[in-house]
Amino acid sequence: MSRILDQTILLLVISFSASMQSTKVLSKWKKCGDPECEKAMSRVQATMDYLGPDCRYLNFKAGEEIMVYSKLSRENENLWTGSKGKDFGYFPRDAVKVEEVLIGEEVEVLTKETDFLCLHEDKYTFE
Q1: In this structure, is residue 115 part of a structural domain?
Q2: Is residue 88 part of a domain?
Q3: Is the pLDDT of residue 7 over 60?
Q4: Nearest one of 34, 124, 126, 62 to 88, comparing CA atoms
Q5: Which range marks the domain in which residue 43 is found?
Q6: For residues 108 and 57, is the Cβ–Cβ distance under 8 A?
Q7: φ and ψ of 100, to 5 deg
Q8: Is residue 4 situated within a structural domain?
Q9: How far is it, in rounded angstroms, from Cα 88 to Cα 93?
C-alpha cells in the first residue's frame, strides 16, 4: 500500500512540475511592430522541422511560411512568436529565415502573463 502511495505522490509531483513549466514566463520583454503587438513584423520561412515542447509553441515543417508578430527580448532573445494558418505560438529564431520585413522599427514592450498561456479553440487554457 505504501508503494502505491509513493508512486501516486511521484506522479502528482511530475504532473505539477510539467504544468508549472508550461505557464512559466519566458521573458519580461518583447519587441513588436507596434505597441499592441498586432502588426506583423515579418514573413519568414521555416528552414527545418520544429516540434515544440508544449502547447505554447508553434509546430511546423521545413518550407512553411510563418508570420512573425513579436520577438522575446533581453533575457530570452532566441524565441519569436508567430502564426501559421490558425496556429499561433513560440518558435526558435534559428529555425527560420526572414523572407520579408514588414515594419520600419521595432517597439520594446513588457510581456503580459497571458503571453505565456496556451490558447485552444479561442479559450485560454490555465494549467
Answers
A1: no
A2: yes
A3: no
A4: 124
A5: 25-104
A6: no
A7: -155, 130
A8: no
A9: 15
Mean pLDDT of 83-107: 96
Q: DSSP 3-state assignment of 55?
A: coil
Split at pLDDT 50, 70, 90, the class of 117 is confident
Q: What is the pLDDT of residue 51?
A: 97
Residue-wise pLDDT for 49-80, tens only, equals 999 999 999 999 999 999 999 999 998 899 99
Range 59-63 contact pairs with CB under 8 angstroms and sequence separation of 24 or more: 59/87, 59/89, 60/84, 60/91, 60/95
Locate 40 and state its grid cell: 506583423
Cell of 37: 503587438
Q: CA 29, 32, 67, 47 torsion: positive or negative?
A: negative
32 domain-assigned: yes
